[in-house]
Amino acid sequence: MNVILLWNVYFLWTAFISFLPVNNTNPKKMEIHSTAFRNGETIPSIYTCDGKDISPQIAWSNIPPGTKSLALICDDPDAPGGTWVHWVIFNIPSSLNGLSENMPRTPMLPNDIIQSKNSWGRTGYGGPCPPRGVHRYYFKLYALDISLKIDSNSLIKDVSGAMKDHILGKAELMGRYSRK
C-alpha cells in the first residue's frame, strides 16, 4: 500500500511540475532598431541615393550569452536581378550596442570591425536606390560565437559561409523606400 501511495505522489508531482515555466532566466529576444526609422516604415531620403547616402544609426539589445562578434547585412530582396546587397559589416565586438550614423566607407574600422564590398562593388554602406516601385530593405544582425577569419575582400557568399554553424541569434529591421 505504501508503494502505491508513493507512486501516486510521484505521479501528481511530475504532472504539476510539467506545467511550470521551464526556465525563467532565458535572455530576451535579440532586437535591432534605428532612430532613423521604425520597423516597416519609410527610410528617410538622407540615407538613400536621393539624399546624402549615409548609413543610418543602428542599435541592438539582448545579445545572446557567448556572443563573440556581430555581423550586419543589409539587402534588398525586391531588386529586379535578385537580392541586392547594400552593406556587409562584420567582426563587430559584442561589447558594442550599435553603429553610429554615417559610418566611414573604409574596409577597416576601429575595434577591428571589417566592411566588405556591397553589390555595387564599393566598400561600406550604399543606400536604397530602387529603379522603380517600393522596395524592402532588411538590416539583419547576426550574433556569432566566433570572429570571422576573412577580410574586406570577401564577398557576401564568403561572409555567409564563414557564419554558417556559428549563429547564436538573429534580429531584423526592415525599412521601405521608393523613388519619386
| Low-pLDDT windows of residues | 1-27
What is the domain total for the residues? 1
Sheet/helix structural class: alpha+beta
Straight-line distance between termini: 83 Å
Tally the helices: 2
3D shape: globular
The major sheet is characterized as:
6 strands, antiparallel
Mean pLDDT: 87
User: What string gives the helices and strands in order?
Assistant: HEEEEEEEEHE
The Cα radius of gyration reads: 22 Å
Strand content is: 25-35%
CATH level-1 class: Alpha Beta
The total count of strands amounts to: 9
Helix content: 10-25%
Q: Looking at this structure, what is the CATH superfamily?
A: PEBP-like
Adjacency order of strands in the biggest sheet: 6-7-4-3-8-9
Remind me, CATH topology?
Phosphatidylethanolamine-binding Protein
Instruction: Quickly give the CATH architecture.
Output: Alpha-Beta Complex
